[in-house]
Amino acid sequence: MLFILFAGIVYFSGLPAAFAQTPQTYQAPEVKLLPNNSFYKLQLVWDKLSLLFTKDSAKRALKYIELADRELTGAAKVIQLGDNAVGLHSAFRGEHYMTQFVNEIKRMADESGSLDTIIIKRAHDAYPYHQQLLIGVIGKTSADTQTDLQKILEFSQRNETELKNLELEFSTPKPQEE
What we know:
Layout: H1 2-13, H2 15-18, H3 40-52, H4 57-80, H5 84-112, H6 117-138, H7 143-171
Helix pairs in contact: 1-3, 4-5, 4-6, 5-6, 5-7, 6-7
Organism: Candidatus Gottesmanbacteria bacterium RIFCSPLOWO2_01_FULL_43_11b
Signal peptide: 1-20
Protein name: DUF5667 domain-containing protein
């Protein structure tokens, strides 16, 4: 029984996608378990464990993008079904993953002195998708939820700007000390 539960969590987590190569074009995730499902908390526990046990920074950064994709896609679907509170919470969690992504990239850059352009490109592909999802559901909600979703959209834009500033910082030659 425990094996079946574990196999279900692995199946719904999209773990096989975590080991796939970075795609050349951005693709939206297939969300099999929506945030309003009673088993979704198991998914969140699995996500935390997978991040905890992912020691490679580059893989962890990609995992943050993958989790953000899933959370924001699930949020949009749940909001379209009329569950604004759960959708809002999931959207916030998704954008928080992107904040963690930016922090992970900063840490990697500080340690190595350079940026991983492949991972950065993946994030630049993800941001428009995330922002379109948020824009798409803002008009389908009540005024209070619209305000909160607008804030999440602003967080997304801020994360994207922060990533661009980091790229600029690492692409600008530093003056030589004499």
